[in-house]
């Protein structure tokens, strides 16, 4: 039987007769599957109603999480701007102390990644995301008052704990609202805030540094106190603006809520509920999914570049435009254009991904841009050529945040598996971030051949691994095409079928 949601009720096919007395609302919300045993959706959706619903979700959900993530990334990376403004000198940091301060953040970030995403599912993202945003805003504010190496390490460790749940938490949150093909582009609309944070953070820092003082605080301390206050303000507002899930969205009509639930369920083979109960089998299914592990490795390699740029681009720019002839504010402003280019491609590639419902091919297309950029760094000592290379690197590197999280989300079935898969992906990514803090070492400057060589190697591995994964998914799908779902599912109850997740015989990898 074929039911049209968001529009008229259509005629029902023979294979779907068991659903002849099931209303659209029942199918969406009351424990019925939304696909047949072959993975085909049992409901067709009115395209106009979907477009209207999607736009409403876009306007109500995306702006809030995007602003929160913007200041999440600013609060993480503003230490690079503070370094230019005298943080190292005032705190008496020497040798590798700055690298160690960056590493402390990633230690807590990595350890708390998966637990935070599980906690996000347990208490609900509508409460978790604002609460953790408020906490890291307070940490950023507190950084303005540190006076020693140990104090700044302690505050950065706490910042890592509270920021650990943001990237995977928002990705998981949006997966409750959007179809597989739609998700990458919506993820890009908040992940684009990472390169924009580099641009806006540089502008904001340069503007703050033109002030003589904020209260009794001067120089780099003003950066942390002002940006921390802004973050806390946005977090408090988000407690009132973020809706936990479609069922609780007061700004949706009853019909729109049913449609929002049913269209997400229609892509999940054998799933009887969108928000399932958490259990160990589903958690492990998300973590040990082959596409999750492969994509997470790609994200790890990519984050060595992305996080390295966030922390060291101001330093790289300083070697190109030395302080002998350029002011600190001028140096800050020169970090902005590469991030603007990166932001454009962060949205472009996921937008194309949405239109084609493909992600892996954009992994393959992005990696060569990064490779060429680092080849330029290694092959030329011309400062303008090196500055130009940063534009290629940001163009290729920043889109992976949206694409990788969308890819792991698209290749699991249950909500619990999705939470653990996204958490695993981001955890791996932040291992890459930890590595990046040691990529550009003091003795390696000003040309940084070790750091640039490392990033050339990682981008080359991304290119190779992405091709291998695409070929493997196609090969495994062809094997699955030869299986008989009815025979393999015989004797299994609905819970056992749901627990199969990506092992379900009707499941197909989505490259």
TrEMBL record:
Question: What membrane topology does the UniProt entry give?
Answer: Multi-pass membrane protein
**Assigned keywords, A-Z:** Membrane, Transmembrane, Transmembrane helix, Transport
Query: Where does it localize?
Result: Membrane
- Coiled coil located at which positions? none
Q: What are the record's GO terms for cellular component?
A: membrane
Transmembrane regions listed in the UniProt entry? 59-79, 99-120, 127-149, 155-175, 187-210, 222-242, 287-316, 336-354, 361-379, 385-408, 420-441, 453-473
Q: Name one Pfam family in it.
A: MFS_1
- Supply one GO molecular-function term: transmembrane transporter activity
| Primary localisation category | membrane
InterPro entries, per database record: MFS, MFS_dom, MFS_trans_sf
Q: Which residues belong to any copy of the Major facilitator superfamily (MFS) profile domain? A: 61-478
What's the protein here called?
A: Major facilitator superfamily (MFS) profile domain-containing protein
Q: Which organism is it from?
A: Cladosporium halotolerans
